[in-house]
Amino acid sequence: MNTVLENHLPVQELEKVGLMKDGQLLMDNSNATALKRGNVTDLLEIKNIRGNGYGIESLNARVSIIKEKGENKVRFDPIYKEIQDHPLLETEEKDKLVNGQQTNIKKTTSMYGTIVSHGKDHFQFDPKESSSYYIELAKEDGTSKHIWGVDLDKALAQSRHKIGDKVQLNNLGNKLVEVDAPMKNEVGEITSWEKKMVNRNTWEVVEAREFKKDKDAVIEYDPQTKQFMSYDPAKIKSPEKINGETLSAEKKRKLKEGEVVALGDGTEIQLSTSDKNGVRSNRAGLVLSILIDGGISYLLITGIKSLLDKGNQPPKATSKEKDEAYSKGYLKALVEVEKQLDRKQAQFPNDKSISAEIFLVKGEFNKASNMSASKLDEMKVVDIEDVKNDIKVHHLDENDLPDAVKERNEEKQNDEKQSTGRGR
After folding, report:
1. Which residues are CB-neighbours of 335 under 8 A, at least 6 positions away?
2. Could you tell me the CA-to-CA distances from 59 to 41, 167, 344 in Å, in that order?
3. Residue 422: how many CB atoms within 10 A of its CB?
4. 63 Cβ partners below 8 Å, 6+ apart?
5. The dihedral of CA 404, 406, 409, 411: what is its sign?
6. DSSP 371
7. What is the number of alpha carbons within 13 Å of residue 260 lying toward its C-beta?
8. Which residues, 6+ apart, have CB-to-CB distance to 229 below 8 Å?
9. Alpha-carbon torsion 301, 306, 311, 316, what sign?
10. Which residues share a beta bridge with 101?
11. How far apart are the C-alpha atoms of 270 and 17, rounded to whole Å?
12. Going by C-beta distance under 8 Å and a sequence separation of 6 or more, which residues neighbour residue 120?
């Protein structure tokens, strides 16, 4: 769901650190695909890193491409010995991410609105939580939101703003503060309150001459590197469809903000900036329909890791279809992917990478349908209305196979002949 970077890779930077040579990425296909799609790779060996006053011969790091001053740059995320802090995470939030209680946490960095109320209460008005301060803001769309912070009363007093004023609240990051923390017994009941030093967000309140869009950050923990990764949901490009199902505006919003989105066929999907596929799902494969340069392009994602979320997941579907590795919508979407690749192959007949992609699509169709190649050849796949455009899905033809696969098949056949000759 990030911008596809295949034709915009920083080639010289990648060549300097031994990740690219003669226009080819020197890594396995899954990591190369992740890099081209704007995602983060697995741990790779990086060589000959040079900077101002330092030099590193070799280290293991995850690699991604980021936009810096309008240019694509290589980013390295090495393995840290200790878990790193994040300036926006409070103590309890950090613990929840590290311990796997939540997959991600959305933090507000700037919010605009008109002050309608403020005061001191239990956090989120929950008597089981410690005391905090809140400011309630009326939004332009008629809704209201509460911002919580132990020092919001001081920030509001210093700003001299009052109820009815239009303001902007800015998150300035964390600082250590003393709070009354609840002490609980084995069953979660509060038995006492205790003074405790914890990290809490600090805020400033300033006049808002005009209302702009609120700014947020979605934060995940990456156990591979022991650090937190974050992204701005406003910069994420949501797909128009997933497995052929059109996403509503609300589902697009939820997806970009890191929530689990459930589709009509039982598919569940969640954006994951720390995963090299960029998403997690209860399906093994997905086809995303993305609007690029005014036209629809199809993005095939395979080898997807399962959902980890425990905090913001919708109610579990109970249908048998939800538990299947693939969905009918995925099968139908694969046909559209193959049609797109066929058009590309007709335009660029000498591009071997397109043949490899077509082979992958047909292999996915084999797995997803759980049928033999001969049965697939007999199968008809129809469009979303099940009444138009019968499309025949061809079986895997030897002539369609990439050279590397052909060679592997020939080696396998030779091995079988040799083993037969030895009487096995």
Report:
1. 381, 391, 393
2. 14, 47, 38
3. 6
4. 19, 31, 35, 40, 41, 44, 46, 74, 75, 76, 77
5. negative
6. -
7. 21
8. 40, 77, 219, 220, 221, 222, 273, 274
9. positive
10. none
11. 32
12. 131, 132, 133, 134, 153
Spatial neighbors of 240 by CB under 8 A, at least 6 apart, are 246, 247, 289, 290, 291, 296
Residue pLDDT tens, the chain, 424 long:
555 555 588 999 999 888 998 888 999 988 998 999 889 999 999 887 766 666 778 889 999 998 888 889 999 999 999 999 999 998 889 999 999 999 999 999 999 999 999 999 998 999 888 788 999 999 998 999 999 988 899 999 999 999 999 999 999 998 887 777 777 788 777 788 788 888 888 899 999 988 888 999 999 999 999 999 999 999 898 999 999 999 999 999 999 999 999 998 889 999 999 999 999 999 888 999 988 777 888 888 988 888 764 444 444 544 444 456 777 788 888 888 888 888 888 998 888 878 888 888 888 887 877 644 444 344 333 333 332 233 333 333 444 434 433 444 454 455 444 444 433 3
Which uninterrupted H or E stretch holds 360?
A: helix 352-369
Element (H or E) spanning 171, and its range?
strand 166-184
| Closest to 71 in 3D by CA, of 155, 151, 20, 12 | 12
Give CA–CA dist 174/196, Å, rounded. Answer: 15
Q: What is the longest distance spanned by two Cα atoms in the chain?
A: 92
Cα dihedral 280, 308, 314, 138, rounded to 10, equals -90
Among residues 219, 216, 237, 239, the alpha carbon closest in space to that of 229 is found at 219
> Tokens for 152?
């919001």
Q: What is the dihedral of CA 147, 151, 153, 155, to 10 degrees?
A: -90
3-state class (DSSP) for residue 227: strand
- Give the type of residue at 112: Y
Q: Helix or strand or coil: residue 100? A: coil
The single residue listed with the structure tokens 């190369």 is: 32
Backbone phi, then psi, for 254, in 5-degree steps?
-60, -40
Judged on CB neighbours under 10 Å (0-12, 13-18, 19+), 253 is: middle
